[in-house]
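@here heads up, posting the sequence + SMILES for the zinc ion run so it's all in one place. Ping me if the SMILES looks off, I pulled it from an old spreadsheet.
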Amino acid sequence: MSNLRIGTGIDVHPLVSGRPMFLACLNWPDETSGCEGHSDGDVAAHAACDAILSAAGMGDLGSVFGTSDPKWSGASGEDLLKEVASQVASAGWKIVNVSVQVIANSPKIGSRREEAQSAMSIALGGVPVSLAGTTTDGLGLTGRGEGVAAIASALLEAPQDR
Ligand SMILES: [Zn+2]
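bot reply: prediction finished. Complex structure tokens:
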């Protein structure tokens, strides 16, 4: 039996006018609105964390960090990726790669793709990260500009005894 495990994660945050935009471990200073949340609202990082935890069968962001835990209030996407990478590594898992797609009208991921992929990769300890962007052609909550969504997949190599 293969010792590879895949996991999926999805995240959505509402957009709020005047809040700074943090996405894929980068600040996007040209954006006039940003994601609301208990943390910095980085949907790409959060979806990636959930995908990694899911692949390892270690729960999800809510169960690991708790949305009410003040320790993680205002936590950056980078902080959460580092903590998740550390927790799965402690349990013997190796992250093979992570793929994330952002669903939003703005910002355009392609303009800073390399920089964002590199920032997320560094947070995960050098794991390859691929980042894509898409829109919903004006449909739904992302199309109306009410929020930003992200979906992620992660591939992990299980510990030898799994
Ligand atoms: Zn989130």
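MO: The mean pLDDT is 94.
MO: One more: Residues 11, 13, 37, 43, 46 surround zinc ion (CB under 6 Å).
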